[in-house]
Write a structure and sequence with these properties.
This protein has about 400 residues and is α/β, with parallel strands linked by helices. Helix content is about 45%, strand content about 15%. Strands 1-2-6-5-4-3-7-8-9 form a 9-stranded mixed β-sheet, with helices on both faces. A 3-stranded antiparallel β-sheet has the order 12-14-13. Strands 10-11 form a two-stranded antiparallel sheet. Helix 2 crosses helix 3 and helix 11 packs across helix 12.
Length: about 400
């Protein structure tokens, strides 16, 4: 790292530690002075143009000689990464929410920008039905190449994230404490696995202990990192619904798992459905909508142009009749059988034949084939239809 860049990163880290200076105020400072280093060089009289008296005092307290380097070296020993909102690595999805965090502290890696994400949230004390469905959704979303975002809480959150990792997928947890603090401690195994195979992140500095008032704000990050939010189980006044409110404010799609009218753990979900949330009884309900309207799906014009290139009927090696397809879709069809296969299995078959298709693109193609009636979809599994 060049010396100037290193100095700016250390000063930005220090600036983010100033008490009482939130993201909006920090942005005003940078707009006014141009860089974190310039903020500290400007001095108190210049700060007063932007900050309150208390904020000026908080910033002054950080201006000791060598303070930035001392604190940054101490931070480096935590093994976390520092990702301020000025960094190219800062998630693009978060830049679009009303109150993006000024910085993230990360262990592991951040969610991929070019891969769809779904937040799976729900009751901490869930029913056996909730546990089963959380596992199913986590598994099927992961097999479809979709990242699972949640809060690593007991119950639905942690179950869905563990299932996603077990299925070979990607998952990221947003904590209401420092990213170097495992909370809840009962999820230590999941925490360690997320650090190794996924990501743990927080807007709170290292060492921050879990406190009740820190959890609601972190929910905006969970929904902010996701393209859609799924509620598996929730009571009528559940804290889970805070995430839903924030998702709606951010313009995200909300899905809910329906439950029995007499089951109090399903009251929140059933109420969401009454209010217009989309129903999800399997991951397929999310996946189909996801890829039908997502940017991965080709425009109708492009699909029509492809179909017009070769519109005659032909039969494949199994005797199934279908319109002649583009080469990529024919290869995908050839990798399927009447026995349902997961996206990961289809991807592996194609790879063994020297054909590499990214999971999210493969999922898109399979859904398109399903919509054309050429492939049958069962949850996150796909198969050739039985010959009539």
């Amino acid at each position: 790292m060049k010396e100037a860049n290193r100095t700016e990163e250390m000063q930005m880290f220090l600036l983010c530690q100033a008490e009482g200076i939130g993201g909006k105020t920090l942005r005003k400072l940078l707009e006014r002075f141009g860089s974190a280093d310039a903020v500290f060089r400007a001095g108190k009289s210049a700060w007063e143009e932007v900050l309150t008296k208390q904020q000026c005092g908080a910033l002054s307290a950080l201006c000791g000689k060598g303070e930035a380097e001392r604190r940054y070296r101490e931070f480096a020993r935590t093994g976390l990464s520092f990702v301020p909102f000025t960094s190219p690595a800062y998630p693009a999805r978060l830049k679009e929410i009303p109150d993006p965090p000024k910085a993230l502290y990360v262990r592991g890696r951040l969610p991929s920008e070019d891969v769809p994400s779904v937040a799976v949230v729900g009751a901490r004390i869930c029913s056996e039905y909730g546990r089963y469905m959380a596992r199913q959704f986590g598994t099927e979303l992961a097999q479809a190449g979709i990242q699972v975002i949640s809060g690593m809480a007991l119950g639905v959150d942690g179950i869905a994230q563990k299932a996603a990792l077990m299925a070979g997928g990607a998952s990221c947890a947003v904590l209401g404490c420092g990213a170097d603090v495992c909370y809840p401690p009962e999820n230590r195994e999941l925490y360690d696995r997320l650090c190794a195979e996924g990501g743990i992140l927080s807007e709170y500095p290292p060492g921050t202990q879990p406190q009740r008032h820190l959890f609601p704000p972190r929910n905006r990050i969970i929904s902010g990192l996701a393209d859609a939010v799924l509620v598996v189980e929730a009571r009528r006044k559940s804290g889970t619904l805070i995430t839903v409110d924030m998702a709606l404010e951010q313009g995200k799609d909300v899905y809910a798992l329906p439950g029995r009218a007499t089951d109090r753990l399903s009251d929140g979900c059933n109420e969401l459905l009454k209010q217009g949330a989309m129903i999800a009884t399997s991951a397929a309900d999310i996946i189909e909508n996801f890829f039908r309207i997502g940017t991965e799906v080709k425009s109708r014009k492009e699909r029509k142009d492809e179909e017009n290139e070769t519109g005659s009927l032909e039969r494949d090696g199994r005797g199934n009749a279908h319109f002649a397809l583009p080469q990529q879709e024919r290869e995908i069809m050839d990798a399927l059988d009447i026995t349902p296969r997961a996206v990961a299995d289809v991807e592996e078959i194609l790879r063994s034949r020297g054909r590499r298709i990214p999971p999210q693109e493969l999922m898109c193609r399979l859904v398109e084939l399903s919509l054309k009636g050429l492939v049958e979809q069962e949850g996150a599994f796909f198969a050739l239809p039985l010959s009539s």
